[in-house]
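Quarterly update from the structural biology core.
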Amino acid sequence: MRIGDAAAAAGTTPRALRFYEQRGLLPPAVRSASGQREYGPEAVTRVRVVRALLALGLTVDDLASRTHRLDLLAEDPPRSCASDGDFGPDTFAPVVERRLAALDAEIARLARLREALARHTGAEAGSDLPGR
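Predicted structure, tokenized:
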């Protein structure tokens, strides 16, 4: 199928498919005689996996570091991305742990920011803003 059809089937845009291909998240598409990209169902499935992982908060760089593991998640049913149950440096485990730590740090930063704003405005006691 051509890029527009593949993008629609995966729930994204042709531009996103080209970007994923450029970043190595999607293998280079086979080209037709006229030079147009042609995608098979396995590419659509892989793009769906990529989009699901991005929606979970992983980044393109996170996924690019583990592209060799993406096809395991594209299988039906998905297989573990760990090698025989190990969680070594080649698996998604370190990537997920780093992303979770970054999320925890951002949540803590936002909680501190909220507390500071609430103290400044008196919102923690339910009062009006100062100067009213």
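The chain has two domains: 1-79, 86-132.
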